[in-house]
Amino acid sequence: MEIEGTGITQQKASGKIVRHEETDFSIEEKSDKTAEDEKERFESAKEEARSQLEEAAEKTGEKSEGDEGDIFKAQIQFLEDPQITSGIEDNIEEGITAEAAVRKGFEDPISQLESQEGRMKERADDLRDVRDRLISILVGEERTNLSDIPDEAVIVAENLKPSDTSEMDRSKVEGLVTAKGSRTSHVAILSKSMGIPAVVGTGTLEGLKEGEEVLVDGENGNVVVDPSEEQLKQVKKSEKAEVIRERVATGDGKKIEVAANVANHEEVKQAAEKGADGIGLYRTEFMFLDREQPPTEEEHYENYVDALDQFPDDRVIVRTMDIGGDKPVPYLDLEETDNPFLGKRGIRLAFDSEGEELFDTQMKALLRAAASENGSNLGVMFPMVSSVEEFDSALEKVEELEQELEEEEKDYARPELGLMVETPSTVQMAGELAERADFLSIGTNDLTQYTMAASRTDSEVAELQNPLYPSVLRSIKQTVEKGRENDAWVGMCGEMAGNPQLTELLVGLGLDELSMSSGVVPGVKSEIKEIEQEKSSSKAEEVLQVSSIEEVKDLLD
Ligand code: PEP
Ligand code: MG
After folding, report:
1. What is the pLDDT of residue 67?
2. What domains can be seen in the chain, in order of their start residue?
3. Does residue 283 line the site of ligand 1, with CB under 6 A?
4. Which atom of ligand 1 is least distant from the CA of 261?
5. SS3 25
6. Cβ neighbours of residue 438 under 8 Å, at least 6 residues apart?
7. Considering all CA atoms of the chain, what is the largest pairwise distance in Å, rounded to the nearest integer?
8. Which residue minimizes the CA distance to atom 10 of ligand 1?
9. Residue nearest to atom 8 of ligand 1 (CA)
10. Which has more confidence, 190 or 485?
């Protein structure tokens, strides 16, 4: 039996199911105490919750698990929210217990967040988490937790909230499966930071029984109950690998840079821990989301200098804001469009009255960061370039901003400049673009979307969102060749780069660098060491000859 969902972390794992159920608290509604007494109980529960959350933030921060420490810090803010607190106190005045008042007081804020989109919607889970922590303290009942689990566990739950996982013995977890959740939910962040596969948003957990063996396929987004021997053998190949700190080469000596994709300071730290050879894609648009005002030049500067300092001997490629598409920003007044993926996004916003100032501020900070102590390793790339004119305009803009910095008497330097190859038009013009750029980085997520004309967020066409289609593979090959002819190095930072089962093909296609989620860096590094460059090139040649994805898959098997 197979259950479909969204795959997180491009790996497979197997293990035995551990079902995690949410605690169903029994709550007394009517209070036999005075409102003052109930308020006091609420206040001391709040105190206790705060100290638990501070401890959890510290603990997860120390373990440097991606955004997790910050999640608990955000939960403390929810706990202190004056509106929620006064709502709860008003409820207590009506003669109910503190626990009933807490349950009621969180209802509206939770549904308000739930009615929003994207990351804000996910925050509703944090509110539930804070609510349940308070109730658990008030009723004196422990929530079910994951502190005592057997080895090789696959945790199966409706949803996993930060409090569920902060106590979890991570060394025993092989995989995660949740009925709810999406790529941006807590469980996805956790899965990536632990480097273990997850399948989220399955909709159902039917047929997933305690103790049963399952295969969690984070690559294809499915869960296989009672997998065959053959399927389990494949898992062995992609099992968690040891961290490899040094740079790696194929068996016959071709060096491949294995870098990390990151979105914030925590992920940069984690990339270093996982032995990444630098940062291949810093998705800076996340700096612009979930806030009221855009980041200042100083904030940008400090962020980039911090990344450069954490990788003093490696390249750090920062992508300028890729806002628009599936990543809207609240303070930008962008017109609603039927098709945001085909609208103003990425570099297009740099030349737009709405986005220009944001871009200029960011780019100036980057030019300054390039002059910092470890700044000579900085690379800057532009997203969603679709014509040579656009890249030329971006270069002109860089020159103008350098001029401004000159006038402001600030230190600056020119970093390596490159672009994302993510549209079919860029592939066609890759030669001309590579003449102008220092490097090209192939974004297979978008390149597949635009080549196959299949939205990356529409599950109805998920089948077409596969970079193994011959048209996408030939586009990759063409980009690599054009880059090489024009002395530009060529990397790949789409999800495809982080799939160890495709590493041989990618090496064979001639990529110089692969950039991926930190969790999969060790697996890809160890895979590269097993590969013979010559053999992989002939395999890639063969793959490039066939005309259907089925034939490609057959050859790769
Ligand atoms: C891509 O499109 O492959 C890519 C790496 O960029 P993003 O996923 O951020 O659009
Ligand atoms: Mg992209």
Report:
1. 56
2. 2-22+145-238 (3.50.30.10), 35-139 (1.10.274.10), 248-556 (3.20.20.60)
3. yes
4. 5
5. coil
6. 379, 416, 417, 418, 488, 489
7. 82
8. 446
9. 445
10. 485
| Residue 62 burial class via C-beta count within 10 angstroms: exposed 0-12, middle 13-18, buried 19 and up | exposed
Q: Count Cβ atoms below 10 Å from residue 175 Cβ, excluding itself.
A: 28
pLDDT band at 65 (very low <50, low <70, confident <90, very high): very low
> Could you tell me if the CB of 189 is within 6 A of ligand 1?
no
| Residue 68 CB less than 6 A away from ligand 1 | no
211 Cα: distance to centroid of ligand 1 (angstroms): 37
Cα(103) to centroid(ligand 1), Å: 40
Average pLDDT over residues 213-228: 90
- Atom 4 of ligand 1, nearest CA residue: 443
Q: How confident is the model at residue 211 (pLDDT cuts 50, 70, 90)?
A: very high
Q: Which residues are catalytic, by number? A: 186, 493
Question: Ligand 1 pocket: which of 420, 472, 476 to mutate (most atoms <8 Å of CB)?
Answer: 420
Banded pLDDT at 68 (limits 50, 70, 90): low
Atom index in ligand 1 nearest the CA of residue 496 equals 3
> Would the CB of 493 count as within 6 Å of ligand 1?
yes
Ligand 1 center from residue 162 Cα (angstroms)? 27
Higher pLDDT, 400 or 352: 400
Task: Reply yes or no on whether the pLDDT at 166 is more than 80.
Answer: no
Q: What pLDDT does residue 38 have?
A: 96
Annotate 498-529 with DSSP letters as a single string.
Answer: G-GGGHHHHHHTT-SEEEEEGGGHHHHHHHHH
Over pLDDT 70: what percentage of the chain?
94
CA of 532 to the centre of ligand 1 (A): 29
pLDDT in tens, 280-296: 999 998 888 767 789 99
Query: Residue 313: pLDDT band by 50, 70, 90 thresholds?
Result: very high
Q: Whose CA is nearest to atom 6 of ligand 1?
A: 443
Q: What angle do CA 374, 256, 302 make, to 5 degrees?
A: 25
How far, in Å, CA of 342 to CA of 324, rounded? 9
DSSP string, 59-101: HHHHHT-TTHHHHHHHHHHHHH-HHHHHHHHHHHHTTB-HHHH
Ligand 1 atom with least separation from CA of 495 = 3
Q: What is the distance between the alpha carbons of residues 324 and 91, in angstroms, rounded to a whole number?
A: 42
Best residue among 284, 288, 341, 422 to mutate for probing ligand 1's pocket (most ligand atoms within 8 Å of CB) is: 422
The crossing angle, in degrees rounded to 10, of helices 68-80 and 118-139 is 70
Residue 542 Cα to ligand 1 middle (Å): 27
Average pLDDT score, the chain: 90
